């Protein structure tokens, strides 16, 4: 059976290019005009009125040309600029325009003078470009256009397509209403609303397909393309008010991104997960086994924070879901808050401030101490603990620390072998242990009893680390002089009502888990985690994954890449290679990384392959996930 003959008819402005050419021309010709902005705004609004069919196209063209005041030389400048403004996914799929050259047409209400040279780079010859032409006066100024050309008239594209009488299925791809009407008039078989650069409701609501880029167009038509699976089909769900930069970055890379400002309950999340490929969370959302089992398509969880205790990492691994976090982005923010709180508590600033707010002047030095020369006991000498150690020392504190692991002392800090010894000597104890479940109630009544009378406790790690009842008792009895608490055993999913047993106690600073909530930290996280997500989705890299064999892959050069995640049981690798050998795959590189549970093998191939190989690879016993990257 011979393949279906098709003709592909592309619009030019805002489809093949990212811009409306006449708007760019206006920028060029009006560069020194004091009324430039006003005129450009007028031109854009006239362009849109024409595109949306609100005024006749001829009128729109006449009015714009008058305002443009352009000449032949300006067109040369325009062409140079337009060459850089080809739509990204069009440029990415240049080979389609080469391979299907015979079947591709451009029908535009723009002008051949600038369209021809741009599309010539994509193998589209002038004779398959249908567009208007300018009229020039003796000084080469543009004074009008060929009024005989059907494309200068209302519904000109319909007339043009009728005249062409193209063979086979006629597909029109464009962003404007004038493109859609070709389908309505029966001269096109299918209309694809192209929204990579602009999305117009009047166009999209009537389209056979809305295609956000050329990848999707080629995918829908099962045509060869540079990206195996269009990124717009990859759905990313970002919860918990993740910084908007993450949305920007991931959307710009072509993914479909949805944001929700709060965390979701397990049941709410389960309902959503069916179509989610990438989930972004912060510390509140619980990614349980139930959630994961309902998430067939899930490939990645991005924790936009340090802690990953809220995620069932083992279940993720068993389901082939790679987890990334941001291990350093908010470290400094936590440290600065800890320092600030230690000073505030030592000076009883919150009591003095509360009194004054109530109208009481209480100028006193009682219970107000400098931090200089005091002993700071850091529990957990990891990223945060260490940085705090350095800054605290600079403030004149004597730093001591205790860690379950052997950690190198920074500066003049002193390592203490036993927690009890650290508790006994410190004026301030600050907790920076990790979110390991074994740390539940790590600091309880016994530990507090070992602390100095009048000492201060700071917890910016995890709520479950401190027994809140024991802490309250110690604060009420005066055993402890103050506390700063940022994290709680139970925290609400969203902003609103909240209470804790510590509410109302004097010299207790309560903050709503904001240790890492600074603009700098959130911005940095919104850069770091999306980069990791994109590196995995786009090329298979798992560097810095917290639950998965880490592998840094070489750049994929003109090859297909098979990514195979499997249970790490004997024989799987051999079976994979047997299948690859059977189908005569020309392997250019193979990379394997394993841990005790999973194996991750990446195979690069340098030629077309028999699609049956994919089915066979997926069928290998022990396969967890498999995907192909072009
Ligand atoms: N309040 C907030 O907004 C934020 C809280 N955090 C929390 O801060 C904590 C520390 O973060 P990082 O320093 O980045 O982690 P890290 O993993 O670099 O350091 C944790 C350190 O604690 C040690 N440790 C674990 N259990 C211990 C124990 N029982 N006794 C003594 N040492 C113990 C570990 O050996 C490690 O050196 C984490 O729980 C994290 O989730 C992190 C960022 C923001
Ligand atoms: O800011 C957040 O969402 C959580 C901060 C935190 O606790 C972490 O990074 O582990």
Automatic annotation (TrEMBL):
Domain ACT stretches: 561-630
Coiled-coil ranges from the UniProt annotation: 58-85
Record field: transmembrane: none
Pathway participation: Amino-acid biosynthesis; L-serine biosynthesis; L-serine from 3-phospho-D-glycerate: step 1/3
Keyword annotations: Coiled coil, NAD, Oxidoreductase
Amino-acid biosynthesis in keyword set: no
EC numbers on record: 1.1.1.399, 1.1.1.95
Name of the top EC class for this enzyme: oxidoreductase
PROSITE patterns xref list: ACT, D_2_HYDROXYACID_DH_1, D_2_HYDROXYACID_DH_3
GO molecular function: (S)-2-hydroxyglutarate dehydrogenase activity; NAD binding; phosphoglycerate dehydrogenase activity
SUPFAM superfamilies (alphabetical): ACT-like, Formate/glycerate dehydrogenase catalytic domain-like, HAD-like, NAD(P)-binding Rossmann-fold domains
Catalytic activity: (R)-2-hydroxyglutarate + NAD(+) = 2-oxoglutarate + NADH + H(+); (2R)-3-phosphoglycerate + NAD(+) = 3-phosphooxypyruvate + NADH + H(+)
Protein origin, superkingdom: Bacteria
One Gene Ontology biological process: L-serine biosynthetic process
Name of a matching Pfam family: 2-Hacid_dh_C
Similarity comment: Belongs to the D-isomer specific 2-hydroxyacid dehydrogenase family.
Function: Catalyzes the reversible oxidation of 3-phospho-D-glycerate to 3-phosphonooxypyruvate, the first step of the phosphorylated L-serine biosynthesis pathway. Also catalyzes the reversible oxidation of 2-hydroxyglutarate to 2-oxoglutarate.
Protein name as it appears in the record: D-3-phosphoglycerate dehydrogenase
Source organism (scientific name): Polaribacter pacificus
């Amino acid at each position: 059976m011979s393949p279906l003959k098709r003709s592909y008819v592309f619009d030019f402005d805002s489809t093949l290019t990212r811009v409306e050419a006449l708007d760019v021309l206006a920028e060029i010709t009006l560069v020194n005009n004091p009324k430039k902005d006003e005129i450009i705004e007028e031109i854009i609004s006239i362009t849109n009125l024409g595109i949306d069919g609100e005024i006749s196209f001829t009128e729109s063209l006449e009015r714009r040309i008058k305002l443009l005041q352009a000449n032949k030389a300006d067109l040369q400048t325009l062409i140079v600029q337009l060459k850089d403004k080809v739509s990204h996914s069009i440029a990415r799929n240049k080979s389609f325009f080469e391979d299907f050259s015979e079947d591709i047409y451009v029908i535009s209400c723009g002008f051949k003078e600038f369209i021809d040279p741009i599309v010539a780079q994509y193998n589209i010859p002038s004779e398959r470009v249908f567009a208007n032409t300018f009229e020039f006066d003796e000084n080469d100024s543009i004074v009008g256009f060929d009024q005989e050309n059907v494309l200068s008239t209302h519904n000109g594209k319909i007339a043009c397509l009728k005249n062409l009488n193209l063979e086979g299925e006629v597909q029109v791809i464009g962003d404007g209403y004038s493109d859609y009407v070709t389908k309505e008039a029966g001269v096109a078989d299918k209309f694809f609303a192209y929204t990579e650069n602009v999305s117009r409701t009047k166009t999209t609501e009537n389209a056979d397909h809305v295609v956000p880029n050329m990848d999707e167009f080629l995918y829908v038509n099962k045509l060869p393309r540079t990206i195996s699976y269009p990124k717009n089909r990859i759905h990313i769900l970002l919860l918990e008010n993740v910084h908007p930069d993450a949305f920007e970055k991931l959307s710009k890379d072509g993914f479909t991104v949805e944001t929700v400002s709060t965390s979701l309950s397990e049941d709410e999340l389960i309902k959503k997960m069916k179509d989610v490929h990438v989930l972004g969370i912060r510390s509140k959302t619980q990614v349980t086994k139930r959630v994961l089992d309902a998430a067939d398509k899930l490939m990645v969880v991005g924790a936009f924070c340090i802690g990953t205790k809220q995620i069932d990492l083992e279940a993720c691994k068993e389901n082939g879901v790679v987890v990334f976090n941001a291990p350093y982005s908010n470290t400094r923010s936590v440290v600065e808050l800890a320092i600030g709180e230690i000073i505030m508590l030592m000076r009883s600033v919150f009591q003095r401030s509360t009194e004054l707010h109530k109208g009481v002047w209480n100028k006193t030095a009682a219970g107000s101490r400098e931090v200089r020369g005091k002993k700071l006991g850091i529990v957990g000498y990891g990223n945060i603990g260490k940085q705090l150690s350095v800054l605290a020392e600079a403030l004149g504190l004597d730093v001591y620390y205790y860690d379950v692991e052997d950690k190198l002392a920074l500066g003049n800090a002193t390592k203490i072998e036993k927690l009890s010894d650290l508790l006994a000597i410190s004026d301030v104890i600050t907790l920076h242990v990790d979110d390991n479940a074994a740390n539940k109630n790590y600091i309880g009544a016994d530990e507090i009893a070992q602390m100095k009378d009048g000492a201060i406790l700071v917890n910016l790690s995890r709520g479950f680390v401190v027994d809140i009842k024991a802490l309250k008792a110690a604060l009420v009895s005066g055993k402890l002089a103050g506390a700063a608490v940022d994290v709680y055993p139970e925290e609400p999913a969203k902003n609103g009502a909240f209470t804790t047993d510590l509410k109302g106690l004097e010299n207790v600073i309560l903050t709503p888990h904001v240790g890492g909530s600074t603009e700098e930290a959130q911005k940095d996280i919104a850069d770091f985690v999306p980069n990791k997500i994109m590196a995995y989705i786009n090329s298979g890299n798992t560097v810095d994954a917290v639950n998965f064999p880490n592998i840094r892959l070489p750049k994929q050069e003109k090859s297909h890449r098979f990514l195979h995640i499997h249970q790490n049981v004997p024989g799987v690798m051999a079976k994979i290679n047997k299948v690859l050998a059977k189908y005569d795959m020309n392997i250019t590189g193979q990379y394997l990384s394993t841990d005790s549970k999973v194996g991750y093998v990446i195979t690069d191939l340098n030629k077309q392959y028999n699609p049956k190989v994919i089915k066979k690879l997926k069928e290998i016993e022990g396969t967890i996930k498999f995907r192909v990257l072009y």
